[in-house]
Amino acid sequence: MQKDDCIFCKIAAKKIPSKAVYEDDEIVAFEDINPQAPVHIVVISKNHIEKLSDLAEKDSQLAGRMVMAAKNIAKENGIQESGYRIVMNCNKDGGQAVFHLHLHLLGGRAMKWPPG
Fold first, then answer.
1. Which DSSP symbol is given to 112?
2. Which pLDDT score is estimated for 115?
3. Catalytic one of 40, 48, 100, 102
4. Which of 69, 82, 106, 114 has a beta carbon 3.0–4.6 Å from 37's, enabling a disulfide?
5. Which structural domain range is residue 74 located in?
6. Which CATH number characterizes residue 58's domain?
7. Reported pTM
8. Residue 49 lies in a domain
């Protein structure tokens, strides 16, 4: 299900171009347009799920596939050994800016803790 006003739905439907790095039948991964690290990839579900807290038990395989895609993309980008971070923000106070299920893969530099 796609949402007409959702930018990530439009990217998944190829109505808005992106620098895709991975795609399968359920997810798309692309370079972030405002990268926060040398490697910054956004992994989205093709199906519109608004936020992490909206995931249902039936979506557990989708969430796992998103994480596995990020792991594989990290390896392809040469950051698996040095390290990387996967971030999923949920709701406004959690830092979610686009209300469509997604994760960020960040790497290529040392990460700080705690995050902002």
1. P
2. 83
3. 102
4. 106
5. 7-107
6. 3.30.428.10
7. 0.95
8. yes
40 as an active site residue: the answer is: no
Strand order in the sheet with 27-31: 20-23, 27-31, 39-45, 102-107, 84-87
Q: How many domains does the chain have?
A: 1
**ω into 35 cis (within 30 of 0):** no
Contact present, 9 and 100 (Cβ < 8 Å): yes
* Domain membership flag for residue 73: yes
For residue range 27-78, list pLDDT tens digits in order.
999 999 999 999 999 999 999 999 999 999 999 999 999 999 999 999 999 9
Mean pLDDT of 102-109: 98
Joined together, the tokens standing for residue 33 give 């347009």
Q: Is residue 113 part of a domain?
A: no
Of 97, 11, 1, 10, nearest in space to 51 by CA: 97
Q: What are the residues whose beta carbons fall under 8 Å from the beta carbon of 38, sequence distance 6 or more?
A: 107, 108, 109
Residue keyed to tokens 């980008």: 77
Whether residue 114 lies inside any domain: the answer is no
